[in-house]
Each structure stands twice: as C-alpha cells, then as structure tokens.
Write a structure and sequence with these properties.
Blueprint lengths: L2 H16 L3 E3 L6 E3 L4 H18 L6 H24 L12 E5 L7 E4 L3 E5 L3 H4 L2 H16 L2 H22 L3 H9 L3 H32 L5 H13 L15 H18 L5
Parallel strand pairs: 3-5
Antiparallel strand pairs: 1-2, 4-5
Helix pairs in contact: 3-5, 5-8, 5-9, 6-8, 8-10, 9-10
C-alpha cells in the first residue's frame, strides 16, 4: 500500500470513529468524545470489581459500610429524581450499584468504576471524619461515573495511541529509536504532561462540581467538602507534585473552586430526597 492510500485509509477510519461519538457531560454540558462503547467498559469493570473483592481484605467495620451504602442509596435516588424532573435521560439507568469497604489504612482513596461499582478504603476515613465528609468523597467518585469519565478517557487513549503510531511512521521510526536509546516512552511522557493531564484535571474539577451537586441534592452539608479538602491538603503536605505534572488540581485551586461554587449549588440544587 502506498503512502497516499495509507493516509486516505487512516483518515477515513478516524472519521468513522470520531464523528458519531460527540456528546455532552450531564449538567455541565461540556463536550465529550466517546468512541468506546459504555456497555463494554461496564462489563469489564464488573469483572475486575469481582476480582478486587476476592483479593483485597474487606473491612469488618459494619457501621461504616452501612453508612457508605446509605449515602450511596440516597445519591442513587437523588440522581434519579433530578434527571426525572428535568425530563432528561438518567445516565445511571444501566448501573448496577455496589459498595465495598476495603481494609487498608495506607491507602487514602476511594473510586467508582463504570456502572456504579464503588470502593472506599479505610485509610481515607481519617480525612472524611463524619457523614458529610464521607458523602463529599462519594459524591466526587460517583460523579466520575455519572459523567462517563472512564469512557471519555479510554476513547482519548485510543486516539493518542493512533496519533503516536502515525507520528512515528511519518518520522521514519525516529521516535521509536529515541525510546529505545533512552529507555523512556518519550511520546507517552510528553502527551501525558501536555495533553492527558490537563484533560484529566478537567475531569477532576468537573467531578468536584458534580459531586457537590449530588451531595446537596441528597441533603448533605456541602460546606464540609471544603473542610474535607483542607484536611486532605494537610495530610498530603509536602507530597503534592507541581500541578502541571499532576492528574489532579492542586489543593489550593481545588479549595478555591469549591468555595466559588458553594452558594450557586446551595441555591440551585437544594435537597431533592
């Protein structure tokens, strides 16, 4: 196949992937690109979730697990009610919600997989402190799933990999040579700092915003969200990388944004359940 035919073929293939997949994130209406089927990621996430439950040590703290499930159920209902009242398709219609508490004091984290599979690590409880703080964390993680951030990131990854391969072809394989000599994925590193990280920070800020909305709709005190991140900042003191190299906004920027959104969210998204 000659160069012209190859470029024509690739161009047509990319157009076929990209054109039918432009959507918007719920509530924020941010434009999104999705070329990976959500159903595929949900199925994969469910399988991985089962493996995690087998390998990780589940916490015996039944009281905290019950609190996690109660918060989750309230958020499930408030999200459903909100989109129903707005007569908008509920982005969680195909979710199979599930909640676990993993015993690991060293991990200060929580996550929500595509399809509503949620895990909280006991290490983050030192930062949440109370029900409103725990709701702030869960609202943020649930927001990632509601906004389909995993689908978006997977799609972005496909495009980056395709672009990297094309650049290598057009450079006569010089990028691959650089990678072999230096032992570093030069293109991957540059794309991470220049493209993927700012994109991921956008998702993180969006999850902060949507998470506060879901917490407020569910009747939790979202003023605790700022206090939570102030505690997280203190616990992570001296460990944060420069923001341009991080996948998350800096603590100072995050707290500033949360304060800026506070009154708007309290006014426009009062408790719904």
């Amino acid at each position: 196949m000659d160069r012209r035919k190859f470029l024509s073929y690739v161009g047509c293939s990319c157009c076929g992937l990209i054109l039918p997949s432009c959507t918007t994130a719920p509530i924020t209406n941010r434009s999104q690109l999705k070329i990976i089927p959500e159903s595929k990621l949900n199925a994969q996430a469910a399988q991985i979730y089962e493996k995690i439950k087998e390998k990780e040590k589940m916490s015996n703290d039944k009281e905290t697990l019950l609190s996690i499930k109660n918060i989750g159920k309230k958020m499930e209902n408030s999200i459903d009610e909100y989109f129903s009242k707005k007569e908008i398709e509920n982005p969680t219609n195909n979710f199979q919600w599930e909640y676990i508490l993993i015993e690991n004091k060293k991990v200060r984290n929580a996550w929500c997989m595509p399809g509503g599979k949620i895990a909280v690590y006991t290490g983050i409880l030192d930062a949440t402190k109370n029900t409103n703080g725990l709701a702030a964390v869960m609202g943020h993680e649930i927001a990632h799933a509601v906004a389909k951030h995993s689908v978006e990131r997977a799609s972005r990854g496909v495009l980056l990999n395709t672009g990297t391969q094309l650049i290598d072809i057009f450079s006569g394989g010089k990028l691959s040579q650089v990678n072999r000599v230096t032992g570093m994925n030069t293109v991957g590193l540059l794309s991470q700092i220049g493209i993927m990280n700012p994109f991921t920070r956008t998702q993180e800020s969006e999850a902060d915003y949507l998470g506060m909305i879901f917490s407020s709709l569910s009747g939790y005190d979202i003023r605790e969200t700022v206090k939570l991140w102030e505690r997280m900042k203190e616990l992570n003191k001296g460990k944060e990388p420069p923001e341009f190299m991080s996948t998350h906004p800096s603590s100072d920027n995050r707290i500033k944004n949360l304060n800026n959104w506070m009154n708007e969210i309290i006014l426009n998204y009062p408790p719904i359940v």
